[in-house]
């Protein structure tokens, strides 16, 4: 039983990692490439979830609801960038933290006003709510959809950043915005696009999560911290790093959580193991982060040349 | 050639007056409150003073050293639980509380700082946040000590005949701590250590090239700041006679940061004024609308966009 | 107004739904009595504790010494309750809780000035523990978030269920994705699952339990996880979940029918038990204040009036125990459809009759 | 080496980057008090050589000794305390501090530890006196109390030099100190460096040949990571190999 | 006139740096800006490029006013910049630094492409996969020049054209600039080596304290060397 549990948990870990990657990819672009501290990434994730839920409840069209979230959150991100965040690029991190933190409060309050303080409903079509038999355990089909969507996004982001001219310009802008403009590239538009892209990915992640998680104000905060841990482990600004780190965090967290109790039970008394297990489990990724930083202060895959 | 002056940054006269007036008002408040029979104001202002202490502590790293810590609530939490745990085990001696708070804060600051200070910029901000969250969830899972319900405190801190249980005593103690802290940070700002710290904020690479082991200095500042924030937690615990994991929640860290910026990052007096201003504005907004959190959000966005020097730093003459 | 009453609850932020329901329930009661309790016109001073104990202490202090209210009611969460209760009762102010009932306040720290119109936190799990025993489940898989509430719930469940658990899980409080745990349940193949996830966590839990194909296959017994506040977010996803409560929208008595109808009419939603309990607290105050003719200066008299108040509770029979917590029935509820076809809590029977909480003997009051 | 102990020397220094041999078995001696210029084509490995001495890069192989101490793998700040001084481009003065504070920090760095929390640094005579003396050396005494951000370009370079020499280093490393300077400023800098003659042992990397020939006691030529010639300025100027690979008409 | 700067005034925050500067560059002109450090040459260049918005005055490029246009549009009109301090993109490889900004190569027969600049600077070709951050100072300067060329500008501006370059390479730069001028490119240069500038340039502007204090040809310059010495400190 331990063996099949391990395999299932690996699958779960990958799925969790992919979900984290969707969030981390957008945030690492904004953090690393624009050198902008965006605390409200989680708020965009929440927005994605609410928008998806509302659209699905109104139209009953599942896939369309999820897909529509992307342009909507891209637009929200772009508008915010255009009118507010643009003015903060040349300021220190503190001002950026404050401004985006303020927006978390504003977004949460808006969600609370529009949709009420209680969680909001989001279901999913029957076809997706089936399970698929893996080693005698029903594995939700929808989770496989998430894995597929996340992998697609990962490949897309990698190609975009590392293989296209657009990606080169983005990376160039990370180190010297003014010079990029001085060579004839509309850097403002570029920034808006990156921010929009990040927002879109966050929105998509939120939309994908909406059917599994509770859609409520503040749902973005816990996820934000987890995402940041992923980014720090992966190396800030590196999409590739974010991908591997997301998988590592997903796997370590999921497998650690379910396997640790067995490990503890094997050498501790059961009551002690029962107490130590959950405590360590809740800290396991922070410990992982501390470990990584102790050996590689710039993360596992730092952007080279900085 | 005239000899270079001793470089004493003159505090503009009216700024001196402002400080003196504010101090006088604070000293007189409990007396006035007694005559007006409004003891509530003593409690209210004690809380403001406690947050002023915490904000000033944060300013030591954030304003003087450029370390944007998003996890200072960690130390407030530790300070509060020091009192609660001592009380839980029947210890009412304030010195024991204080020693416990300082030692544990220092230890936590050392451990988390050693990891966090390996990074800079965004990563530093986020790691400090993560550590505070870690503590938060740790406390919540400790059933023995009340978990998320928190731990009521039966024995407040008693320093000989000074018993913080008495609201007026607590008030004046907090006021004294704040005054001492502000004077201390003024001295620190100009002392060798402060100079090195400010140098690190402006250009850490250059400081390293000058031969300063910068991380060590930053770590010492971080530990110092953590200890002071721990003391503010101790005071808060005495005010509420209660310790709760929520003292260490990330919104508290955010609030502290806002107070510092609102008052004036890196100024000596600013953070205290910022704490007062922020909490009073919050209180005011709450009276007008149920959606006051959104209002606070708007205010914070505006502070981030506009308040480059903060309230205190924007006074004419730019006092420190 | 003749009399000021402080209403202190968690009203802001995402966690404020419970406080809002309490407020709406209380105000509905007040409104139905023409803005008067016990014949006295009432001014309600509303304060928000922001889910922060230190703020709770501050606003409580304000209610006590600025507004000089003789009564404070509401209080949503245990952490705030624990921080403020002593401050309030020590100041000679009456505290009528309508939601949270932490164990110390039922036991050693009980107070003649504190009354609860809800229940002690462990009691619902006692009821479902009894249910599990009655059903003859031998293998129960227990899981909840790693915090105080879950540990209390386990203790309560254990009082009425003696079989060992096949597994007891404490998941980190910030963990949203429970798929790893669902896989463990599927592999363990228990007779039933006992869970305690409050608020949004509950929504996560139920959705994922359903998606893992477990709901309908392995019976799910919960406390706190589904209630009137989270049910709208779950809708049909939660059909078939079993829980216990002192009250349900379909609780069968005249007072309740009137209450539910009025509440739905006024607020456009089905009330939660928190609204019902707060509504009861208005009723309770009405009778007690009337008894002493609005004169609250004699605390002992008013305490006695509260304790012996006879009012028509929406939950049916109602009486105070020695510790000022109610003696009441706990009913088995299932998530099902109500008469109008909406997803709601449906009463399936009585589990515990005239139940007293486990701590009342520790309370020195007799 | 005529029995004189070199102030700094490297033996068999190798630094390899993927595909590039930036230092190829460099044996180098810096004699006490001399100005030793290193010239060579772009990408020859001059900066890489300097960075290995400061500790920004660790060599792939070889040894670096400062005085009698092996510093090959030592941390940068320890090297500085041992007497290494290094100039930066102008942007690296601490712009928000006063001129005096900048130099005081440099003195303080050398004086051991700075864990003093109470007394004003600028009033401590053991910091203040040497700092003011250094400012007088570079001709900035009159501007001691100004914030350094208001200084003119040339003055910033003077301040930069003051910070380097304030700690009284034994070995001075100057990587392109004239870069970005106009003719006048270059000449002032040459004069300043002339005035230090004999006080420090200096390694000077520079493409401005006028400055190099005016200042250097000896010159080493680095090409593809290798020292191909070392000698007096006159010898180097006449060396055909150097003329062909580096100097061109400039000689 | 390809570029006509007319009575431009610029400032950083409160401090004014340029006071009514006027210069003109005709098609095919090779113009130098001379002056000591801090006299405003880079500020003038930054103002032309649109990095700084002038407080007053006009700048016409090809007859169109550009003083209020955003920087990237100015560049797109056909101005290529080699900035002071190189400012290559450290996290991109040499090749990426070039290819990302190559444009306009289809409109001209003898256009600058990545391959063509590799011929000009073979050193860059050797290092094409290397991150710009790890290039030596001189290699970075070459890259900065090459990067400006592949945008196929009509006006090339080099601020400190040969800073950090070895003497031999500097000579190569000067001869390539002569070549470019022959191809019809207009050029503005600042550099501290006066001699090659006097050989190459058609027109000089001497700036002092933010004003043009002298302008003229190389012959005129040579004729009044003594007087100009004060401004240049030669
Ligand atoms: N990290 C690295 N990875 C790969 N190659 C490198 C790295 N660092 C330096 N190089 C290469 O090593 C060679 C030596 O560089 P260095 O900076 O030492 O040259 P330099 O002599 O200072 O030249 P310049 O006079 O142009 O400044 C250069 O060709 C450079 O491209
Ligand atoms: N970003 C800035 N902020 C404030 N003042 C500046 C800034 N950049 C330059 N200055 C000031 O503007 C004046 C002109 O500087 P500029 O860079 O244009 O001179 P330059 O002629 O190019 O000299 P250099 O040889 O130093 O490059 C100088 O006094 C300088 O101090
Ligand atoms: Mg070099
Ligand atoms: Mg310039």
From TrEMBL, chain A:
GO CC terms of this entry: plasma membrane
GO molecular function, one term: transmembrane transporter activity
Subcellular location: Cell membrane
InterPro entries the record matches: ABC_transp_permease (IPR001851), BCAA_transport_permease (IPR052157)
Membrane association type: Multi-pass membrane protein
Source organism phylogeny: Bacteria, Pseudomonadati, Pseudomonadota, Alphaproteobacteria, Hyphomicrobiales
Keywords, alphabetical: Amino-acid transport, Cell membrane, Membrane, Transmembrane, Transmembrane helix, Transport
Organism name: Pseudolabrys taiwanensis
GO biological process assignments: amino acid transport
Chief site of localization: membrane
Transmembrane segments: 6-29, 62-85, 141-161, 193-213, 225-252, 272-295
Protein name: Branched-chain amino acid ABC transporter permease
PANTHER family: ABC TRANSPORTER ATP-BINDING PROTEIN, BRANCHED-CHAIN AMINO ACID TRANSPORT SYSTEM PERMEASE PROTEIN LIVH
UniProtKB/TrEMBL annotation, chain B:
This protein's record includes keyword Iron-sulfur: no
Alphabetized CDD domains for the sequence: TM_PBP1_LivM_like (cd06581)
InterPro entries linked: ABC_transp_permease (IPR001851), LivM-like (IPR043428)
Domain of life assignment: Bacteria
GO MF annotations, alphabetized: branched-chain amino acid transmembrane transporter activity
Main location class: membrane
Name of a matching Pfam family: BPD_transp_2
Keywords: Cell membrane, Membrane, Transmembrane, Transmembrane helix
Membrane association type: Multi-pass membrane protein
PANTHER family: ABC TRANSPORTER ATP-BINDING PROTEIN, HIGH-AFFINITY BRANCHED-CHAIN AMINO ACID TRANSPORT SYSTEM PERMEASE
The protein, known as: Branched-chain amino acid ABC transporter permease
TrEMBL record, chain D:
Signal peptide from the UniProt entry: none
GO CC annotation terms, alphabetical: plasma membrane
The keyword ATP-binding is assigned to this record: yes
Pfam annotation, one family: BCA_ABC_TP_C
GO molecular function annotation: ATP binding; ATP hydrolysis activity
InterPro entries in UniProt: AAA+_ATPase, ABC_AA/LPS_Transport, ABC_transporter-like_ATP-bd, BCA_ABC_TP_C, P-loop_NTPase
UniProt-listed SUPFAM superfamilies: P-loop containing nucleoside triphosphate hydrolases
Keywords for the protein's UniProt record, in alphabetical order: ATP-binding, Nucleotide-binding, Transport
Keyword Phosphoprotein among UniProt keywords: no
PANTHER family for this protein: ABC TRANSPORTER ATP-BINDING PROTEIN, CONSERVED COMPONENT OF ABC TRANSPORTER FOR NATURAL AMINO ACIDS-RELATED
Protein name: ABC transporter ATP-binding protein
From TrEMBL, chain E:
UniProt GO molecular function: ATP binding; ATP hydrolysis activity; branched-chain amino acid transmembrane transporter activity
UniProt-listed InterPro entries: AAA+_ATPase, ABC_transporter-like_ATP-bd, ABC_transporter-like_CS, BCAA_Transport_ATP-bd_LivF, P-loop_NTPase
Superkingdom assignment: Bacteria
Boundaries of every ABC transporter domain copy: 3-234
A GO BP annotation: L-amino acid transport
Sorted UniProt keywords: Amino-acid transport, ATP-binding, Nucleotide-binding, Transport
Family, per entry: Belongs to the ABC transporter superfamily.
Protein name: ABC transporter ATP-binding protein
């Amino acid at each position: 039983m331990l063996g099949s549990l391990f395999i299932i948990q690996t699958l779960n870990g990958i799925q969790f990692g992919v979900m984290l990657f969707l969030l981390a990819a957008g945030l690492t672009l904004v953090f690393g490439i624009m050198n902008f501290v965006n605390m409200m990434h989680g708020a965009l994730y929440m927005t994605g979830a609410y928008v998806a839920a509302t659209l699905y409840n109104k139209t009953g069209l599942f896939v369309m609801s999820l897909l529509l979230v992307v342009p909507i959150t891209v637009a929200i991100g772009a508008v915010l960038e255009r009118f507010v965040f643009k003015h903060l690029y040349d300021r220190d991190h503190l001002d950026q933290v404050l401004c985006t933190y303020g927006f978390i409060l504003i977004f949460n309050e808006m969600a609370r006003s529009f949709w009420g303080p209680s969680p909001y409903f989001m279901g999913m079509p029957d076809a997706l709510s089936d399970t698929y038999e893996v080693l005698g355990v029903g594995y939700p089909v929808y989770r496989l959809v998430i894995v597929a969507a996340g992998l697609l996004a990962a490949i897309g982001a990698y190609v975009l950043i590392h293989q296209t001219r657009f990606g080169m310009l983005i990376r160039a802008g990370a180190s010297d915005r003014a010079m990029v403009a001085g060579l004839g590239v509309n850097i403002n538009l570029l920034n808006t696009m990156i921010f929009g892209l990040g927002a879109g990915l966050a929105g998509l992640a939120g939309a994908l999560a909406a059917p599994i998680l509770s859609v409520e104000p503040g749902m973005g905060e816990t996820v934000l911290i987890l995402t940041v841990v992923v980014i720090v482990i992966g190396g800030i600004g590196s999409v590739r790093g974010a991908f591997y780190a997301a998988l590592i965090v997903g796997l370590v967290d999921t497998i650690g959580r379910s396997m640790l109790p067995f490990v503890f039970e094997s050498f501790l008394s059961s009551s002690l193991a029962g107490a130590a297990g959950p405590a360590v489990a809740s800290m396991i990724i922070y410990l992982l982060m501390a470990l990584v930083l102790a050996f590689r202060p710039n993360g596992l895959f730092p952007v080279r040349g900085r | 050639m005239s000899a270079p002056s001793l470089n004493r940054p003159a505090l503009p006269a009216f700024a001196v007056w402002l400080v003196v007036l504010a101090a006088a008002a604070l000293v007189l408040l409990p007396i006035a409150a007694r005559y007006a029979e409004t003891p509530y104001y003593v409690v209210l202002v004690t809380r403001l003073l406690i947050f002023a202490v915490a904000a000033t502590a944060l300013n030591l790293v954030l304003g003087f050293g450029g370390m944007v810590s998003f996890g200072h609530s960690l130390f407030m939490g530790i300070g509060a639980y020091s009192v609660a745990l001592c009380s839980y085990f029947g210890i009412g001696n304030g010195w024991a509380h204080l020693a416990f708070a300082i030692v544990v804060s220092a230890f936590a600051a050392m451990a988390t700082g050693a990891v966090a200070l390996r990074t800079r910029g965004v990563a530093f901000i986020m790691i400090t946040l993560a550590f505070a969250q870690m503590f938060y969830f740790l406390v919540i899972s400790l059933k023995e000590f009340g978990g998320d319900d928190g731990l009521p405190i039966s024995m407040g801190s008693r320093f000989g005949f000074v018993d913080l249980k008495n609201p007026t005593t607590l008030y004046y103690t907090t006021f004294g701590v704040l005054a001492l802290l502000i004077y201390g940070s003024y001295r620190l700002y100009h002392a060798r250590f402060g100079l090195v710290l400010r140098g690190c904020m402006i250009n850490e690479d250059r400081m390293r090239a000058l031969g300063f082991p910068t991380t060590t200095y930053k770590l010492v500042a971080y530990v110092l700041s953590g200890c002071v924030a721990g003391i503010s937690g101790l005071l808060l615990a005495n005010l509420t006679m209660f310790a709760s994991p929520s003292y260490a929640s990330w919104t508290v860290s955010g609030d502290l940061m806002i107070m510092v910026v609102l008052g004036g990052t890196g100024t000596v007096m600013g953070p205290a004024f910022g704490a007062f201003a922020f909490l009073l504005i919050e209180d005011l907004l709450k009276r007008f609308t149920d959606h006051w959190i959104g209002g606070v959000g708007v205010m914070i966005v505006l502070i981030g966009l506009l308040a480059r020097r903060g309230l205190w730093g924007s006074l004419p003459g730019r006092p420190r | 107004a003749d009399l000021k009453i402080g209403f202190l609850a968690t009203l802001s932020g995402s966690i404020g739904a419970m406080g809002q329901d309490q407020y709406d329930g209380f105000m509905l009661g007040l409104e139905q009595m023409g803005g008067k309790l016990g014949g006295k016109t009432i001014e309600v001073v509303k304060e928000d504790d922001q889910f922060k104990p230190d703020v709770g202490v501050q606003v409580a202090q304000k209610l006590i010494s600025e507004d000089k209210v003789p009564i404070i009611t509401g209080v949503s969460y245990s952490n705030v309750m624990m921080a403020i209760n002593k401050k309030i009762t020590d100041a000679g102010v009456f505290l009528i809780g309508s939601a949270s009932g932490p164990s110390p306040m039922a036991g050693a720290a009980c107070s003649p000035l504190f009354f609860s119109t809800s229940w002690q936190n462990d009691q619902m799990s006692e009821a479902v523990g009894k249910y599990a025993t009655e059903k003859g489940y031998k293998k129960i898989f227990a899981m909840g978030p790693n915090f105080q509430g879950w540990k209390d719930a386990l203790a309560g469940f254990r009082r009425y269920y003696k079989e060992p658990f096949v597994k007891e899980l404490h998941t980190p409080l910030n963990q949203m994705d429970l798929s790893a745990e669902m896989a463990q349940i599927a592999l363990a193949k228990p007779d039933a699952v006992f869970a305690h996830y409050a608020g949004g966590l509950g929504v996560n839990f139920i959705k994922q339990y359903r998606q893992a194909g477990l709901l309908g296959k392995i019976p799910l017994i919960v406390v706190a996880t589904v209630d009137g506040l989270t049910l709208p977010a779950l809708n049909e996803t939660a059909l078939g979940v079993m829980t216990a409560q002192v009250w349900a929208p379909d609780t069968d008595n005249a007072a309740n029918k009137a209450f539910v109808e009025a509440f739905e009419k006024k607020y456009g939603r089905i009330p939660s038990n928190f609204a019902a309990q707060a509504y009861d607290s208005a009723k309770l105050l009405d009778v007690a204040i009337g008894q002493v003719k609005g004169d609250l200066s004699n605390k002992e008299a008013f305490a006695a009036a509260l304790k012996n108040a006879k009012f028509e509770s929406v939950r049916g029979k109602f009486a105070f125990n020695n510790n000022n917590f109610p003696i009441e029935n706990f009913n088995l509820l299932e998530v099902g459809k109500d008469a109008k076809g909406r997803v709601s809590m449906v009463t399936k029977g009585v589990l515990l009759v005239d139940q007293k909480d486990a701590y009342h003997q520790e309370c020195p009051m007799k | 080496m005529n029995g004189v102990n070199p102030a700094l020397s490297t033996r068999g220094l190798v630094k390899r980057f993927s595909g590039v041999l930036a230092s190829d078995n460099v044996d180098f001696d810096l004699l006490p008090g001399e100005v030793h210029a290193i010239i060579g084509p772009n990408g020859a490995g001059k900066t890489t050589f300097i960075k290995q001495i400061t500790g920004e890069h660790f060599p792939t192989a070889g040894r670096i000794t400062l005085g009698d101490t092996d510093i090959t793998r030592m941390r940068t700040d320890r090297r500085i305390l041992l007497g290494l001084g290094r100039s930066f481009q102008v942007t690296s003065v601490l712009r928000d501090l006063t001129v005096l504070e900048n130099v005081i920090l440099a003195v303080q760095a050398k004086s051991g530890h700075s864990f003093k929390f109470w007394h004003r640094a600028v009033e401590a005579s053991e910091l203040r006196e040497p700092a003011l003396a250094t400012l007088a050396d570079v001709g900035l005494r009159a501007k001691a109390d100004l914030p350094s951000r208001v200084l003119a370009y040339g003055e910033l370079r003077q301040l930069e030099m003051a910070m380097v020499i304030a700690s009284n280093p034994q070995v001075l490393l100057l990587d392109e100190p004239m870069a970005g300077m106009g003719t006048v400023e270059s000449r002032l800098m040459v004069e300043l460096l002339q005035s230090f003659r004999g006080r420090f042992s200096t390694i000077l990397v520079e493409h401005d040949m006028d400055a190099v020939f005016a200042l250097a006691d000896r010159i080493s030529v680095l090409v593809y990571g290798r020292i191909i010639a070392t000698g007096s300025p006159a010898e180097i100027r006449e060396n055909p190999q150097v003329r062909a690979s580096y100097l061109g008409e400039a000689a | 006139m390809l570029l006509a700067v007319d009575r431009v005034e610029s400032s950083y925050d409160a401090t004014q740096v340029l006071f009514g500067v006027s210069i003109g560059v005709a098609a095919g002109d090779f113009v130098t800006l001379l002056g000591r450090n801090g006299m405003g040459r880079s500020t003038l260049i930054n103002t032309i490029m649109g990095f700084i918005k002038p407080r007053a005055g006009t700048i016409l490029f090809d007859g169109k006013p550009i003083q209020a246009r955003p920087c990237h549009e100015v560049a797109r009109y056909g101005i290529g910049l080699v900035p002071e301090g190189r400012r290559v993109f450290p996290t991109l490889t040499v090749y990426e630094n070039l290819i990302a900004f190559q444009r306009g190569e289809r409109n001209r027969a003898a256009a600058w492409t990545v391959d063509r600049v590799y011929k000009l600077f073979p050193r860059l070709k050797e290092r094409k996969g290397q991150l710009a951050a790890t290039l030596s100072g001189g290699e970075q300067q070459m890259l900065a020049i090459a990067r400006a060329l592949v945008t196929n500008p009509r006006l090339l501006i080099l601020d400190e054209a040969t800073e950090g370059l070895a003497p031999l390479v500097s000579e190569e730069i000067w001869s390539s600039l002569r070549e470019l001028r022959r191809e019809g490119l207009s050029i503005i240069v600042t550099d501290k080596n006066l001699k090659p500038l006097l050989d190459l340039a058609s027109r000089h502007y001497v700036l002092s304290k933010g004003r043009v204090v002298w302008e003229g040809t190389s012959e005129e310059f040579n004729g009044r060397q003594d007087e100009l010495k004060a401004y240049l400190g030669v």
